[in-house]
Structure formats: C-alpha cells, structure tokens
Amino acid sequence: MELSQLRTLIHVAELGSLSKAADRLHIAQPALSRQVRMLEEELGFALFLRHGRGMVLSEQGKEVLTHAMRVMAEIDEIRATATPADAPLTGEVAIGLPPTVADIISLPLAAAFGKAHPKAKLRLVSAYTGYLLDWMHRGEVDVAVLYDPRMARSLRSRPLLLENLFLIGPPDAGFSTVRAVSFASLAGKRLLLPSIKHGLRIIVERCATDAGITLDVGIEADSYSALKDLVRNGHGWTILPLAPIHADVTAGLLTAAPLIDPVPVRRLILAYPADRPASRLARFAGQAIEDVVKDLVGRAVWVGQLLGPPP
Amino acid sequence: MELSQLRTLIHVAELGSLSKAADRLHIAQPALSRQVRMLEEELGFALFLRHGRGMVLSEQGKEVLTHAMRVMAEIDEIRATATPADAPLTGEVAIGLPPTVADIISLPLAAAFGKAHPKAKLRLVSAYTGYLLDWMHRGEVDVAVLYDPRMARSLRSRPLLLENLFLIGPPDAGFSTVRAVSFASLAGKRLLLPSIKHGLRIIVERCATDAGITLDVGIEADSYSALKDLVRNGHGWTILPLAPIHADVTAGLLTAAPLIDPVPVRRLILAYPADRPASRLARFAGQAIEDVVKDLVGRAVWVGQLLGPPP
DNA sequence: ATGAGCTATCGAATATCATTATATCTGGTC
DNA sequence: GACCAGATATAATGATATTCGATAGCTCAT
C-alpha cells in the first residue's frame, strides 16, 4: 500500500472520475487507473464501481476512504511538525457555534485567526446544538461550542463556561445589571421565550418550577433576533444570556437584570470529535475560543463562571 | 513522504539503531539510512540524533513518531476492511481492568477472544483506575473499564454498570443476598476497608455520612484478596461488589448481604482513548466486555443496574 | 446507429529503490 | 593518545517500478 494510492483514492472518490483526478493531480490517467487497481488487488475487493461515465465508491470503498483521509490528516500533521508551534498555518477549519454564541465571538475569533493564521480558511457554522452534534459526527465540523448535551459520549469535551441568564426587557422596564430580580417575581408577567425544544426554555421552565411559579408565555419565538425585536417593541420580557444582547444594552435599546432564586445558568462546553484527532487549526480554534470567552467574561460582557478543565 | 519511510522511522526509533532495524525488516542498512535521510530532508529537520552507537529520536522526531504510528494504525484498519466484520483478526490489544473487575471478567473475556479472534494477542492489564488512565493516555492501553473518574475529558467513554456494593462477612455472619442490611446498622461494627485513596472507600464513607454514622475501620488493606482473607478469618466485615467474591459466596467461604439506606453504588464506565481512533480489536474488546457484563448481571453474579448508552 | 466520454491495457522510456562494497564517524579501551 | 569495534553515511550498479502516450473497448445519451 502506498500513500500515492490513498491520495489517488481520495481525489478519484471526490471527483468521481479518473480522468478528472488525473487532470487535477497533473499525472496521466493510466497511472491512476493502475494505482486504483493495485490497491484493489492488494485489499482483495473493489474500491469503486465502474459505470461508463466514471466510477463511484463501493460500500467498502467508503470505509477505506475515511481511513485514507485520516492518514492524510496525520501526514499533514507530520509536515506541520516542521514549523514552530505558533507559525502561521494553512488549511481549513470549520467551527460550530450556537447562534447566540456566534453573535458575540465570531468577530474576535476571526480577528484572532487573521492575526495568527492569515492564510487559514475559516468556516464559521452557526446552528443549534443538535445540528452541530450531527455535523461533528459527519466530520463537517472540527470544533464546536455546544450547550451541554449531557451525552457527549462520542465527543471529547471540556467545560467552558457556566453562563448566567438575564431577564431582558425594553428600555422603559428599567432593568439594571446591578439590581437582581427574583425569579418568583416573574409570575404573571408576560414572557417571550423559545419553544420547549430549546435547551434554554427547558432551563427556564425548571427554574420556574423551583421558584414555585408557572410562566405566562405570550409568544414563542425560536429566532433570538426575533425575540430581541419583540422585546424592544414592548411585547414582553425574555430571558437570555447577556453576551449576545450586550451591545443593545449599552446602546440603551434594551435593559437587562440578573435573575436570582434560582439563578438560571446554562453550561457551555467546547467539543472535538472523538473519532479523529483534532488538527492543529482545530486546536488553535479551541484555544482561541477559550481566550475570547475569558476576555469577554473578564470585561463583564458575558456574565458567568469560567470552567477550567480539572488540572 | 512514503509509508516505507514511516515504517522505518518506527522501527529505528524502537530499536535505536539502523542496523538492528535493517536486520528485523530484512532489508539492507543503507536503504534505511537513505529513507531516514530523505524523510529528514523533506521535513527540513533532524528526526534522529546520531551518536556513534546508534541513533535516538529528536524532540520533533518523537512528535512525528506518534503521527507515524497513527498512520500505521489506520493502514491496519484499511487492511481489516477487507475481511468481514466478524472474521478473525490478528494483532494486539491491551485491555485495562481494575483488579476487582479483572477477577471476574478476565476468564470469559479471554474465552470470547479465543473463540472470535484466536490469533489476536490479548494483554490484560490489571491496575487501579489512576494508573489505567495514565497508561491509556500514553497509548499503552487500548480500552479500559474504569471507576468513573468524573473527569473523562480526554477519554471517550460510555456508561457500563451501576454496581451495588455488598456487605461481606465470614460464613458465621450468616448474611444472605436476599436479606438487606441497613447502613446504619454498621455503626460500631469492625470493618476492613481499603485506604481513603481508593474510590471504593470514598463511596463507603459518603454513605456512612448519609446514614449519620461513623465507621469503625479496624484494618486498612488496599489489596482486595488480602481483604477477603482477613474477612474469612474473622477479622471483621468489608464492603465490596458482589462479582469478584461471588465464587467464595457460592462455595460457602464468605457470605454477602445487600446494603440499603443508602445503597452504595459504584459507576463503571468503558473508556477508549480520545486522541486516536479505537482499533477493531479494541472495539471488539469493548463489545465483548459489555456482553460479558450483561451476562453476569443477568445471572445475578454481578448485582447492579446496566447502563446502556443513550440511543 | 453513432459519437462523446470514460476506463483498461500495452510497450517503451524513465525514474526510483535496494544491494554490495567501502568510507567515515564516534566512543570506549589499552 | 592511538587504536579498535560498532555504527552510520556514501558511491556505483543492477533490478524493479512507475509513468507516459497511444489505443482499444465499454457505456450512455442523442
């Protein structure tokens, strides 16, 4: 088995054609034909199914492909060993972020990448934790911030932040971040919250139960920018982390107050896929996220308790 | 970069000598010299430090080595793709087990391997969770059963079993597995327990606190076979999972009773290293362990609650 | 039916790699 | 301090593999 054969496999599988792959790799097509054939002979089964217009991976071929891609990732790591740890890297990394988190850290994160690895291609994927989990397993996302799914069995994760949730109202509600509001006082107040499918809603409902009240939810909105707009226009209050609406608060468009008795908190984790080692860029991304979060918490833009990993 | 170069790197690094590696690989020494040199030229740094009696890895070389080994593991997986999922595999796998667990599952585990993969080399490593964690990180263990360390950040783990701990006494204590004993009734009784460093002792102490009593620990013994012998000879009672002493109980050498109020339980997890994908053999080992545990619990040899992973 | 587009095969040219023989280096020993 | 043993590096050579261009054979779409 040769590395060139694996590389050929990867490109042919992607392009679905020997000739196209030959074109891309700048080597003649018969060479690729031979490489594929030899690999198939060595393994004893067909990697591709030929059909007059090209070739597609067989089932076993798909499995081999995943391993081949891992091999190439390792080879890249070996090449990267040459360069010092903080040298600019190239390549791609996909970072998954929940929408509320993306809003607040996308900018500083991109800045950190621009400074440290200007040639690296950054893909910021904003989606709900459920989707992110799925994409992570499928290898389309390399690192992600998740709301603790408590079933991180196929993930490698480290705790990131225990973020406090704030009561958000329009300016005339007169909330202040230094004057806490008890959860019980929400009884009877009209609230705007995401639907029960959201982790955030579940947390809020549990707090309501603990406080011995039931919530009066006027409107359910899953989009949090919709929530913001509705609150700003006086349709009620909502409960969100402070970070993504911090700018609105300082601009006087919204007001926010800490909640207590109980304090609603949401646990954020930083997760890597467990079925393959994280690339250098992915590790850098994770570190950068931690740094950004630390900075935001230090500047009280994001309110919560930093969770370092156990030493 | 070629696979042969990486294989050479691995063997030379292990043997510390080009000539010895040449001997083992059945190729001439200059060939290896050339391969190493070419790899070094491609990477642009020294993989080995030459010193008249051989060569040792440089710091960067060590890092490259870990990647090279992963590459080889992936190549092995590709080769294994050829054979159907349940075909006999070859190779090696190291399984880490806490002593009490090793005692009860080593035999059926070895039997399962003998039947399914007779040519595979099995290494059963029996040690405390702390050591197993360490060895797992260093790549010397491929799968392990652990007492939940609750800090499995660099592990991929799945819950295995919530095992109940039993009160163990000599035959004349007259315990029965169908007659529960309350924790509170242990007050004033002479107990033999492992030292506080052990997870088991911590659990027992917490239960004692919950039950509002303090334990009278006569002898501390970390070796659990020593514990068994001491109990058998009337030096006191101890608290252990049922499984490893099940044979003694059926043989009438010891008696055991379930404890309640509270029920002391220990959480077992099945863990794989997270920094590299598990090999087929490792996955088989994990599956075999789950099967064995399931069987033992079904036959009431091991008393506890099976913890399937969430679907 | 026919042509476009693809893969498989063949032989010659080329490049690559392993081998043998030998030179060079290093570290310990007398 | 010179020598020797054991190890790595180098050179020349021959065997082996790989690539390339040309071409045959196949499949699908028009």
TrEMBL record, chains A, B:
Domain of life: Bacteria
UniProt entry tagged with the keyword Transcription: yes
Keyword Transcription regulation: yes
Any Pfam family matching the protein: LysR_substrate
The entry's keywords: Activator, DNA-binding, Transcription, Transcription regulation
Residue ranges annotated for the HTH lysR-type domain, each copy included: 1-58
MF (Gene Ontology): DNA binding; DNA-binding transcription factor activity
GO biological process, one term: regulation of DNA-templated transcription initiation
Family indicated by similarity: Belongs to the LysR transcriptional regulatory family.
Protein name: DNA-binding transcriptional LysR family regulator
Organism annotation: Rhizobium loti (Mesorhizobium loti)
